[in-house]
Specification:
3-stranded antiparallel beta sheet, SH3 type barrels, 174 residues, 2 domains, 22% strand, 5 helices
């Protein structure tokens, strides 16, 4: 089997696409999965020019959401302009991209404030970082967070030069 997004061969994992039918998703490679939950490498995602036309609605939805995240790239904007989606599929795309109100998957800090890609948060508790051998101290600012799309309780950010996963219940939006 090949990755539903980039077509790479190799080990695949199921990636649930939120906001649509329960259990809807697609098989993607580890490279795509890592980038979806972190920073996107624009050259890798040129593969979306094929994936967006997939017969699988979950692949279409995920492709359009990724194109929105790549909106600063000319090629991604041009591709987005060419896309036609059925009303039901477009509603699925918008289910997550409209933010806190519609978001079953909306990321919220410890006070319930919605978090967005690129926000700055502050740790509200000392957090031992497993495998890195240090403790992220309370009050540490984490700038430019990434949302873990398939888990609203997780965000990613850099602390002491290490990219770590942080539970949203331990952060406060700055």
């Amino acid at each position: 089997m090949t990755c539903s997004l980039c077509g790479a061969d190799g080990p695949l994992r199921f990636f649930e696409v939120s906001g649509g039918p329960e259990g809807a998703g697609c098989e993607i490679c580890e490279t795509c999965a890592e980038q979806i939950s972190g920073e996107l490498d624009p050259p890798h995602w040129r593969c979306l020019s094929s994936a967006v036309w997939s017969d699988v609605h979950a692949v279409q939805v995920l492709s359009v959401r990724l194109l929105k995240r790549l909106a600063d790239q000319d090629w991604a904007r041009e591709l987005s302009d060419q896309i036609w989606l059925e009303d039901e599929t477009r509603a699925w795309v918008e289910a997550e991209t409209t933010g806190g109100d519609a978001g079953e998957t909306a990321h919220k800090d410890s006070n319930g404030a919605p978090l967005a890609q690129g926000d700055t948060v502050v740790l509200i508790k000392d957090l031992p970082v497993k495998g890195a051998g240090f403790t992220a101290k309370r009050g540490t600012a984490v700038r430019g967070i990434s949302l873990v799309l398939d888990n609203p309780e997780h965000i990613e950010g850099r602390v002491e030069g290490q990219r770590i996963v942080i539970l949203t219940k331990f952060v406060k939006k700055k």
